[in-house]
Design goal:
heterodimer, A: 515 residues, alpha+beta, eight-stranded antiparallel β-sheet, five-stranded antiparallel β-sheet, 13 helices, 38% helix, 33% strand, B: 364 residues, mainly alpha, 77% helix, 0% strand, binds protoporphyrin IX containing FE
Chain lengths: 515, 364
Amino acid sequence: MEQKSLSDRIWKFFSSVKLAIVVFSLIALTSIVGTIIEQQAPMETNMKVLGRIVGESAAPAVYSVLNALGFMNMYRSWWFLSLLALFALNLLVCSIERFPAIWRIARTPIKPLPPDTFKSMQMKAELSLGEKPDLAREKAIAAMKSIGFNASLSGEEGGGWQLYSQKTPWSRFGIYMAHFSIIIILAGAVLGKFLGFEAFMNIPEGSGYSVAISTGGVSQSVEAERDTYMQAIDASNGDYAQAAQSLNMPVKDLKTQLLKAGIIPLGFTVKCLEFDVDYYPNTDMPKAYKSHLQVIDGGQVVVDQWIGVNKPLRYKGVTFYQSSYGPMGNYANGIAMLTLKSATGQTQDVSLGLGQSATIPGTKTVVKVGDFTPALAFDDSQRPYTYSKMMVNPAIRLDVTGPSGSYSEWVLQRFPESWRLTDGNIAQFNHFWGVQYTGLQTRKDPGVALVYLGCIALALGLFMAFFMSHRRLWVRGIPEKGGTRLMVAGSASKNKPTLERQIEKMISLLKEGGR
Amino acid sequence: MQSPLFFGISSISYVVAMMVYITYLAFRKNSIGVTATAVTIFGFACQTLAIGLRWIEFHDTFGMSWLRSIPLTNLYESLIFFVWCLILGYLIVEFKFKNRSFGAFVTPVAALALLFINLSGMSTEIEPLVPALQSNWLLAHVMMSFISYSTFALSFSTALMYLIITTDKKSEASYIFWTAALGIFGAVLIAMGIDFIVNFKAMSGMKPEMFIHSYLFKSTFLDANGAVRLVSYLAALGLVLFVWRFGSSLKRVIGNFNLSAEMLDEITYKSIAVGFPIFTLGGLIFGAIWADQAWGVYWSWDPKETWSLITWLVYAFYLHARLLRGWRGHKISVVAVFGFVAVIFTYLGVNLLLSGLHSYGSMK
Ligand code: HEM
């Protein structure tokens, strides 16, 4: 007996709303600290933050206390995760406990109300109709229908009758669904954490990689070997056995080392054919950036697609998001992709490296790529200079040699008016290729489907809970002298005034018809 | 474009409406009340038109699809949208509850917000969107968040009024709470006004984000001069004490409005009950979906997300305490007030205060 009451007490503890309220408060309060302390930041950052709040002198002491308590990475600390687990357990126990009662209410068909209960209902009304009970019944059925209730009928002693009906009994499940969906969301998050990964890939234009770098922590001990592993696994297209062989180590060791180094083999190759940025006119603010990617699996190109911000690529459970880009650092290796057009309209596409030249079709004019800058500007004395490392205003200097002499001219990719050369020929500057990388956030998250499912259920559940209600309506007809006496009773799980208004409407309909 | 003109007309209308509403409170004549409503509706129509014009301008300037061009991309535009939602929400309440008393509270807020934007000469330029912001999910997210913020704002003011009209004794905890809350609120507003006046010249053409970041409270609580700081804090304390001392006269004023405590409590609950599902769907879920699409993480515990979660938890607290633990009266109203404090912090504090504390992306 003793045993039983203890487990009862534990069960009660975990199902109590009091616990829920305490856990809400704890999660909220600790989270506030987590937004003030910058998470996973270098020590100096938070020292500065604390310095501004508690003063320079107290900051180190406060820092070490908070650090010891795990606040520097609190959303992954054992106590915060325990709070979330407690929260989930609370929800789960609460849901299990309440399920039978909700099921009973929602599934039990509505029954006639015992006559004496009519008096004790909160929502009730009475009126007399001049019609005989049979006629009054038909009118009552119609009136109920007009406010959306399909009545069932049962007879009563002494020639009376009772009509009863209910609407959206399943809306009772709404709040239940909302609670349970939170458990589903948390389960999805846990699943993703254990079976998925979060990583990134910076792929230079023209290259392909078959590994991603984890964004999680990397063990210092293997940082030095990281590149070696990466190259080996990349050379073998993600084939562990082959890579291990080339490194002269057992496959098992390689796997553990890779894991430590935060290298995740994808099992296929992702290649970036081209990367492009569109700018807002007359600014260096990107309007859109996108990458032309290919997925190569088993030697075959299986996906060929442009991706952009908000437009990711998915393959074999891994998703690639366009998240950043940048210069490779060496612009000298780039290739200018030009379309040369003669004044007479002949055209030709050419790809020229720095120092290479081509002839404009149908003419004797030769253009050579003499210089390149990712961001061309002119200073006060009209001398060209580079104003940014980013490729915000790519330009090439074309050294032109032709019948009308030799001269040099800057051609800017973003400014078509600069493409027309002095001699009337056109060098359309399409793209400067091979000098930027595309930054892809790479993620595998088998739990995301559950999270989305939970979100849908949460939204539906809450809308059901707040904007719908389980409404029940009973109308009783008792024969009386000169007609029928009607007694109306109603109940609603939510929004009682709405049902009250509906009942009023029904009654006024019945009265009108009586006249 | 004409949008600034119509924004101007709508602000003036709200100021006029405020005066008419106050006159209405004094004389209680129906014709005055109808006039007040009509002026508000007129201002609302002008504001709607102005937003529409700005929308068109955005579309034409940047050549993006209509959905992506909704002017909801920066603090300026979101403030305007907030005012718009607030007025819409108020008009709905006025028609539903057949009570005009709130008009005298809501229209000044709307007028002040709009006048502040107009007068300050802050940059109202339309700005291009960085690629990550070009998402329909983001749009749904921002819009629904603001709709829920407006309902929460309403619940905040009714909860505060509830506290005002139901407390008597100066030693009562709830009395101290609401006078302190109102006093601090007033002190912050006055301090902002001082920043505004002192730096009026420097501000023209500046974005609101920039202004708040560089000047907010810098002439008072955060002044370089220690004496000014001390005086500011003392003045704020004085204001709180003043409100505490004379709070009961406010009670008498509001007492004249024919607002029953039950009705205020009911509106507080109702607006939270409407706001909560909208906030859950729009604020949390759509935000997560957008982050998932744009960044590849649906939840990263960044300060904005975390503060949304905190807000959500406070309102979940409210609902459970009220419905299941039977909290009523003062206790539950205090929770509603805290809920809106969390909302304000989610909306403004994270961008403005936390980012000032940290070094990241404050001007983004
Ligand atoms: C953040 C998580 C939670 C959210 C968003 C949430 C939300 C809600 C909402 C919106 C209601 C509806 C109130 C109404 O009927 O108007 C509710 C009711 C309720 N909640 Fe929660 N809740 C959460 C966590 C919990 C937990 C952990 C418990 C466990 C004790 C719990 C127990 C209940 C109970 C027993 C009800 C009453 C349901 C009914 O009327 O049948 N909730 N909750």
